[in-house]
Amino acid sequence: MDMQQLTEKAQNILSEKYSDEDWSTYSFPEYVYSNESVETGYKVAVKEPELLKSQTCYCFCEAVGHESLLYCFFKNGDPEAGFDSHASNCNICYSQALRALVFRDAGYTPEQIQQGFQRMYGHE
Fold first, then answer.
1. What is residue 59's three-state secondary structure?
2. For 41, 46, 88, 105, which has the most beta carbons within 10 A of its beta carbon?
3. pTM metric for this prediction
4. For the residues 70-97, what does the mean pLDDT come to?
């Protein structure tokens, strides 16, 4: 699945699951709107923080203190601390968020998703 297909699939899942959501209430920063995939990734982050918290990010951002994929979207991995721009500039981060949502929707557990990411990205 290419990025456009992945984005569309994730958008469809969000639309079904959160059909009445008023996304403007989240006051996303401008960088979130750099492209549809980034925007969709941040929407996944605000609605599914526990899913992203359960996943390791594979862009090597642990070197800057990121403990999970959630850190790429929120300062210190905390939705209450505000958005972090890291994911908006990293196609690995936002594509992982989209994939995690799609895989979970397909019935995979967070552990199975993590195992898939390990195989996909080739490092622990």
1. coil
2. 41
3. 0.94
4. 95
